[in-house]
Amino acid sequence: MTWLITGGAGYIGGHVVRQLLDAGERVVVLDDLSTGDASRLPAGVPLVEGSTLDRAVLDAAIHRHGVRGVLHFAAKKQVGESVEQPFRYYRENMIGLQTVLEAAAGGGVGRFLFSSSAAVYGMPDVDLVTESTPCAPMSPYGETKLAGEWLVAAAGRAHGISTVALRYFNVAGAASPGLSDAGVSNLVPMVFERLTAGRAPLLFGDDYPTPDGTCVRDFIHVSDVASAHVAAVRRLAADPAGATGLVLNIGRGEGVSVREMLAVIGRVTGYDTTPEPAPRRPGDPARVVASAGLIRRELGWSARHGVEEMVASAWEGWCARHPQARRS
After folding, report:
1. Cβ partners under 8 Å of residue 190, min gap 6
2. In degrees, to the nearest 5, what angle opens at C-alpha 88 toward C-alphas 143 and 68?
3. For a Cys-Cys bond, which of 3, 79, 177, 186 suits 320, CB 3.0-4.6 Å?
4. Catalytic site residue 141?
5. CA pair distance 263, 82, nearest whole angstrom
6. How far apart are CA 10 and CA 7, in angstroms?
């Protein structure tokens, strides 16, 4: 069957495209290239340049390529920006998702995988976040992901579409330099950018109720995120009735503080990563670490890569684009 991957030229989407192709799946990508990069796509992968808000483009892509499954990645994803621009985030993330679902239902698509986020949980008062932990998002971004899960499930019930939602924790690393994160909104590339410019990394808050005062996160290698999607696609293809309605965390189940991550980055890059204190960012919870037991039971999936490997692979990609950054 053929899978339409919205946002497939992006950082995570590009990795998923590669692994799905390696698994023998057929894919077509829809991306407006606002943050995506067509060079991430292997030769021969059809690219439809367009917006998820454009129903006509979606209808044409589904019909022309015989699409029977959708993986929906296309969304705005910066927490702080969403606080400043809620209208934009609800338009892009919610109305865009609604338009994709309407096109899927109208085109006879039977399987839908939704890219969600740990931001739906907000600041849970638990050591490990399970999929049944109450959701209380702290930003418009998190709100759109939670509401998106509800919309996907409702559309699935109404139109006979088998649906799965995958909640990502903090994604880092790269399978190859050409697939690395070109943006600087996530922690690791944000630190790289500061170091390369000769500036100290910013530490957004050092007074959180955590052991070292900095936020604690569950960092997950992007290759592991991609392999989780392959496992979900296989489950949707083989057992659509049994898979439908699954909501699963993608994480390692291990917390790493921002200070600890800065220390890893220092070891990998050879730079001094002593940070410069900065105010807390709005919408940042103190600790969010996944319980990854349910995805292991349902899909037989578990993460394989550690934090050092994430940082080293991300650094290779950064240096490929910024050769002056590498220390001799």
Report:
1. 184, 201, 202
2. 70
3. 177
4. yes
5. 29
6. 6
pLDDT digits (tens, 9 = 90+) for 189-239: 999 999 999 999 999 999 999 999 999 999 999 999 999 999 999 999 999
Q: Which of 11, 89, 90, 141 is catalytic?
A: 141
Q: What are phi and psi of 319, to 5 degrees?
A: -70, -30
Fold of 172-217+252-325: UDP-galactose 4-epimerase; domain 1 (3.90.25)
pLDDT in tens, 230-270: 999 999 999 999 999 999 999 999 999 999 999 999 999 99
Q: Are 76 and 84 in contact (CB under 8 A)?
A: no
To the nearest 10°, report the CA torsion of 118, 15, 18, 111: 20
Band (pLDDT 50/70/90 cuts) for residue 313 is very high
Rounded CA separation 204/213 (Å)? 10
